[in-house]
Amino acid sequence: MLFNNKVVLITGAAGGIGIAVAKAFAKEGAKLALVDLKRETLEKAAESLEAEDTLLLTANVGNENEVKEYVQKTKDHYGRIDVFINNAGINGEFKNITEQTEENFKNVFGVNVMGVFYGLKYVLKIMKEQKSGSVVNTASNGGLLGAPGMSAYVASKHAVIGLNKTAALEMAEYGVRVNAVAPSGVNTEMMRRIEKNAMGERAEEARKTFEASVPMNRYATAEEIADLMVFLSSGKASFISGAYYRIDGGQAATSV
After folding, report:
1. One of 70, 78, 118, 153 is an active-site residue; which one?
2. Per-10-residue mean pLDDT for the chain, 256 residues long?
3. Model-level pTM?
4. Can 153 be counted among the known catalytic residues?
């Protein structure tokens, strides 16, 4: 078991990728600290896990004090943090830049950028003291290219990749690795919202269009994203840091 008695902290743990990665780490023997916005959704997510030790924590990742608190509670409960899956994120509303609202832009950045930043700020302090640890940030293929109507989301995921690279360089001398995954569409409820945002009542048409843009002609599963996160967190990836991995069914091969 790759993570027997290791402590894994996961944000956005009640979402599709969050649940899948929690299950994957539980199967590898990890102790889990799960963070999400609502207690009831966390409890429902935890019911599907086969973990011997699970800590449920509610927090708004865009609030620095609440992030500091969930990190400290994890440290107090388990004594350490070995892996941090910095996963919480939202897509916001689709609007062209000329129609974009300040409120939507700030909301998306509050979770996708500030949430990632606050998580890194407080978790890395603990890992630095331990002189060990692995972080996986959830970026997106939207962090590598543009997408009409998705300025807030795209800009936020570009920022995640920048934070990922910088954190990796700052932590390298302490034995702490920092990487990111950059998925294309993943078959989760977030993707259903993106489809609806894109084409309203024609959401099924949006899904077919999005899937057709992938050479493998489908979305990723949350479990496929989780498998990559587990690998990057493990000793099998001991010399990988500062990287971002596209997991996109071949989309990267279609561009320069």
Report:
1. 153
2. 94 96 96 96 89 92 98 98 97 93 97 98 98 98 89 96 98 98 88 79 84 88 96 97 95 80
3. 0.93
4. yes
